[in-house]
Amino acid sequence: MFYMARVEGSPIYAIKRSLDAEGVSTPTGKSGWAPQLIRRYLLSDLYKPHTFEEIRELVSPEVAATLDPQKRYGVWWWGRSRLNRRQVAESGPEVRRYRYRYKTGEKPKDEWIAVPVPDSGIPREWVDAAREKVMNNRKPSNAGRREW
Q1: For residue 102, what pLDDT is reported?
Q2: 13-17, 125-129, 131-135: lowest mean pLDDT where?
Q3: Coil/strand/helix, residue 75
Q4: In Å, what is the CA distance from 147 to each residue of 13, 21, 142, 143?
Q5: Exposed, middle or buried: residue 18 (CB in 10 Å: 0-12, 13-18, 19+)?
Q6: What whole-number distance in Å separates Cα of residue 71 and Cα of residue 48?
Q7: What H or E segment, with its residue span, contains residue 134?
Q8: How many CB atoms lie within 10 A of CB 4?
Q9: What share of the chain is helix, strand, coil (3-state, %, to 5)?
Q10: Which terminus of the chain, N or C, has less C-beta within 10 A?
């Protein structure tokens, strides 16, 4: 993915078509790749190699003491999203039914907890270039589902 985005200059949909045509399955075993998933992978800190100094600033001193200063690490963020649940009542013709409504949102960045993971082996230049390429992409308008 990163090679296609960085070196070949392929957009997300070209990466999707290529992975689908080659029969590469998703990590969950599905045969079709979603463009949103590819974008999420390209922007994820899991695949971006960080130096020991960069990781040391993100994690607690106890965690930093267990890491090898000569290696590079990716970052997985714990506690990024918040899930709010509230009970709602729906009145029917005979009975009143209760159910839950859920709302998700992202927590402020200072509440996230960094977890170092082993380096993915992808060169940092590829990751940075792929991120730069897709960072400002916008979802196209569905135009109210009108035919043009």
Answers
A1: 94
A2: 131-135
A3: strand
A4: 21, 28, 10, 8
A5: middle
A6: 13
A7: helix 124-134
A8: 19
A9: 35, 25, 40
A10: C
Instruction: Specify the pLDDT at position 148.
Output: 61
Residue 105 CA to residue 107 CA, distance in Å, equals: 7
- The Cα–Cα gap between 121 and 94 comes to 61
Structure tokens at 35: 């463009």
Q: Are 115 and 45 in contact (CB under 8 A)?
A: no
Find the helix or strand (DSSP H, E) in which 101 lies.
strand 96-106
pLDDT the model gives residue 115: 94
Contact 38, 25 (CB under 8 A): no
Spatial separation of the C-alpha atoms in residues 55 and 75, rounded to whole Å: 8
List beta partners, residue 74: 117
- Contact predicate 79/102, CB 8 Å: no
